[in-house]
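Input chain follows. Return structure tokens only.
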Amino acid sequence: MTNVSLAILARNEECHLPAMLASLLAQRWFAKNAPPHDHLQLVVVANACTDRTAVVAREQLTRGGATLPPGVLTWRVEELAEPGKPNAWNRFVHEFANPTADYLVFMDADIRLLHPDTLGNLLRLLRDHPEVEAATDRPVKSLTRKRWKSPIDWLSLGAAELTRAAPGQLCGQCYALRGAFARRLWLPRGIITEDGLIKAMAATACYTQPADQARIRCAENAAHEFIAYTRLGDVFRNQRRQQVGQTLHVILREQLHANRLPGEDAATVLEREYARDPDWFAAVVRDRIATGGRWVIYPGALAVRFRRLRNMGWPKRLLLFPVALGGFLFDLPVLLAANRLLKGGDVAGIWPDKGAP
């Protein structure tokens, strides 16, 4: 029997959670994998919520779970007082999930599964390809359904296509990991865009081998929809957050290499440092920024969009070059703002009592 533990990580998502849960419980995996073949444990992690997220989750799962084959699903809702997605992720993996689960699946609460075999195909990819550590699906922006699209909409869709062109992408909104691999990881407090760390650890066997993007695969016939930012201010703030997150990931990668003892991999370093001090990484970042001069954003940040063009054939390169150029011009003020945010000490998880970037 295959055991699967699935986390829905939610922060104040009472409005979006019903649609997410309905799309999950409608997955054909439940009908195809009734016991004694497979079992899924679902844990909704209500992450420092101040709304009715936990109540809505219990109501929806009580009703929806009753329609599934007996024994195929067990569920519960865990409410956390401490905010932060890394904390919620760690608590699920190391405390709430089945400790012998073959696969761990992670989904955000504000998405909607589009393909009825998304869950099954994520798990099938890991089962059929032992070399793959992480399986992801295809993220689809909600604005694709708009009949009349604005210039910002078209730029947003083009930017998404540029991102998908890069190999080994892992979308943090919906992915599955081998249980043994996930249980080796401890996400440090203060990390933003945690999928970047998970992707890097999977591709490099925890930084012991050269990156092999084949260890991360996108499952066929697996997709989810998410609400895309359409207002310029929201796009700006999201991109600023992404750039802050990437900078923190580069700092973490360098620190993991510096702290490795002979024979250790990066997962061992993460576990050791987290056990010593859960806030160890935040202290590293504060020290790095204090001594890093005026510019602390990671090297090569401005060239990312143009580098992604190299993964495409010439027709696509020519078609998306204006998108890359527009993104480059947009990134200039974004990077300045991200650098100012870091230097000013305004990032939650790194500096106490600060808001999210």
